[in-house]
Design goal:
Length: about 290
């Protein structure tokens, strides 16, 4: 076939993919071509706009390094990451809600014992975090793996500052499914905005901030791994998270305590501190 025009080219491209042996790949390509062509017709894309899009995507790729994934940031800020998350976690059946993994998870976080401090020699308001991991049937899950990571008081993750790991750890729950650790209060922070995704936010008058949170990845045998956050109640960005990750059920009060009080682990506190407790439910594998 020849003489393609704006009306017949879409069907021709779909037919050109007609011999794709993998049926799922064929379905995805058919839908992609249909929606992409419809989108271009819908906005009546100019040649200059097409060039600008190519340049933007090229810069997005060029911004990627071992520690910076600009395409995931683009996906996050377009709401695509949370849409994929929603589609893949449709039926929670009482399990804790999920949210974005984000780019700052590290596999090799130190394994620390119950009650340890994940922020040694780190400035900030002390925070005591605790909770219980259960199955959706209410059974406490012993020896579950609780991986936690968060930013510092200035809104930076360790990997953005130096190769030294800090403010992250992996814990194992005890026989009653409990975990506990000391840290510092995280703050709201901007996602990296010195690249093309930041330019997109600026051009559209969007701010780059995420509300303060701790990240959790919780795994236990025969259960679905849970990737989620606990958000700090009262944060000014809860309703405008740059990556659309906030869910009401994940917001918790980080209770303020006065200096001179005693922490749950018996520690006498000589400055004001915070605490929160959050219980997580994991869904059985099948
Ligand atoms: C984060 O919460 O660490 C995060 C999530 C998405 C984009 C950037 C950061
Ligand atoms: Fe984060």
């Amino acid at each position: 076939m020849r003489d393609f025009d704006e009306h017949n080219i879409t069907q021709s491209v779909i037919e050109r993919f007609g011999n794709t042996p993998d049926p799922r790949l064929k379905t995805i390509l058919n839908s992609l071509v249909t929606h992409l062509h419809d989108f271009i017709r819908d906005v009546d894309l100019s040649f200059e706009e097409w060039q600008a899009a190519i340049k933007f995507l090229t810069r997005t790729g060029q911004q990627c390094t071992d520690t910076r994934q600009e395409f995931i940031l683009l996906s996050d800020t377009l709401g695509v990451s949370m849409l994929v998350d929603a589609i893949n976690h449709r039926h929670r059946d009482g399990a804790t809600e999920t949210t974005v993994l984000g780019p700052f998870f590290v596999n090799e976080a130190p394994a620390l014992p119950m009650g340890a401090n994940i922020a040694p020699n780190t400035e900030g308001e002390p925070l005591y975090a605790s909770g219980v991991i259960r199955s959706t049937h209410g059974t406490p899950l012993a020896n579950a793996r609780v991986e936690v990571w968060q930013c510092n008081k200035d809104g930076f993750y360790d990997v953005q500052l130096s190769p030294t790991l800090n403010l992250r750890a992996s814990f194992q729950t005890d026989a009653q499914g409990r975990f506990a650790f000391w840290s510092i209060l995280p703050t709201s922070y901007p996602i990296p905005y010195d690249g093309p995704v930041g330019d997109l936010l600026t051009a559209t008058k969007r701010h780059p901030y995420r509300p303060a949170h701790l990240h959790f990845m919780i795994s236990a045998p025969e259960h679905e791994t849970l990737v989620t956050h606990v958000f700090v109640k009262g944060d000014q960005y809860l309703d405008s998270d740059a990556v659309f990750g906030v869910k009401n059920s994940l917001i918790e009060e980080f209770k303020p305590h006065a200096s001179g009080t005693t922490a749950p682990d018996g520690e006498p506190m000589t400055k004001p501190w915070r605490s929160f407790s959050y219980d997580f439910s994991l869904k059985a594998d099948r």
